[in-house]
Design a protein that fits this description.
Elements: E1 5-10, H1 17-27, E2 30-35, H2 36-41, E3 51-54, H3 68-77, H4 79-87, E4 91-95, H5 97-104, E5 119-122, E6 130-138, E7 151-158, E8 162-165, E9 176-180, E10 202-206, E11 212-215, H6 240-254
Parallel strand pairs: 1-2, 1-3, 3-4, 4-11
Antiparallel strand pairs: 5-8, 6-7, 6-9, 9-10, 10-11
Helix pairs in contact: 3-5
Length: about 260
C-alpha cells in the first residue's frame, strides 16, 4: 500500500475539494477525490488511505443543518470502517463544513468513545455569513499543529461556525487546538475577531490522540504569501500549508 495516499470526501454541495486536492498533491500526497455516495457502497475502500480530508462547502445544501445529512450517511454506512481507520493511527481532518460533519457524526471529540455527538456548530451570532481573515492562537496538541508560531492567520467563510458545548458533559479545554484572538493575542469573544461567537473562542479541536482534527478556518486557502492581504501585518510564510506538511511528515515518520 502507498502510505501517502490521501482521500478527499466530496458530497453534493462541497466546493473546496479541488483546492484541498491541490494542496495535498503539492506537499507530496497521492490524492483522490471520491463522492460520499460511492463510499457508501465501498466503505472498506477508505482503509486503503492514510489521510482523509472532509473539505469545506455546503454538503446537501445544509438543508437540515450544516453537515447533518453527510454525518447521518457516515454514521450509517462508514463509521465502522472509520473507527478501524482511526485505530490504525491514521489521520482525519475536517475543514469548515468538514468540521461540522465530524462533530455531528460523533467522530469529534468522541471523548466517550461511543461516537455520539458531544458538541456542535451553530449559526453565527451575527446571523450572517462571515468571510474574513482571523488571527488564531495555536496549541501543539495535534499532529497538524506542530512547529507553528504562537499565532497565525487564516481565512474563515461560514454561516454556522459558532462552537458550543456543555461543560458538564465534555471536558474540552485539553482538546482545543485553535482559538480566535484579538490584537493583543488574547482569546476573545469580541466581534469580528471572533467571527461567530464561539464559546471560549474555540476555532478548532482535536481528539485525544491529536490525529483527528476539525477547524472552521480554511488552511487550504492560504498556501502562498500573496493570498494574505492586510496593511498592518507582515508574515514570513503562508500558514495554511503547514497543516498539510505536518500531516505528510507524521505519515512518513510514524506509519
Amino acid at each position: 500500500m502507498n502510505k501517502f495516499k490521501s482521500l478527499v470526501v466530496k458530497a453534493d454541495g462541497s466546493n473546496c475539494e479541488i483546492e484541498t486536492d491541490f494542496i495535498l498533491r503539492k506537499v507530496g500526497f497521492e490524492s483522490d477525490i471520491i463522492h460520499l455516495n460511492t463510499l457508501m457502497h465501498e466503505p472498506k475502500s477508505i482503509l486503503g488511505y492514510s489521510f482523509i480530508v472532509f473539505p469545506g462547502g455546503f454538503s446537501y445544501g445544509d438543508y437540515t443543518g450544516s453537515g447533518r445529512i453527510a454525518a447521518s450517511i457516515i454514521k450509517h454506512h462508514l463509521l465502522e470502517n472509520l473507527e478501524t481507520f482511526i485505530s490504525q493511527g491514521k489521520l482525519i481532518l475536517g475543514i469548515c463544513n468538514g468540521f461540522q460533519i465530524l462533530v455531528k457524526s460523533g467522530i469529534l471529540p468522541n471523548s466517550s468513545k461511543s461516537f455520539k455527538q458531544e458538541v456542535s456548530l451553530i449559526f453565527n451570532d451575527s446571523h450572517k455569513y462571515e468571510d474574513r481573515w482571523v488571527k488564531l492562537q495555536v496549541s501543539d496538541n495535534s499532529v497538524f499543529t506542530k512547529n507553528f508560531e504562537k499565532t497565525i492567520y487564516l481565512p474563515v467563510a461560514h454561516g454556522e461556525g459558532k462552537f458550543i458545548y456543555e461543560s458538564n458533559k465534555t471536558e474540552i479545554d485539553d482538546l482545543v487546538v485553535l482559538r480566535y484572538v484579538d490584537e493583543k493575542n488574547k482569546p476573545t469573544m469580541k466581534y469580528p475577531q471572533n467571527p461567530n461567537g464561539s464559546t471560549d473562542s474555540i476555532a478548532a479541536i482535536a481528539d485525544e490522540s491529536g490525529r483527528v482534527m476539525g477547524l472552521m478556518p480554511h488552511p487550504e486557502r492560504f498556501i502562498r504569501k500573496e493570498q494574505f492581504f492586510t496593511n498592518k501585518t507582515e508574515i514570513n510564510e503562508p500558514h495554511g500549508i503547514r497543516f498539510f506538511e505536518n500531516a505528510f511528515t507524521y505519515i512518513k515518520e510514524e506509519l
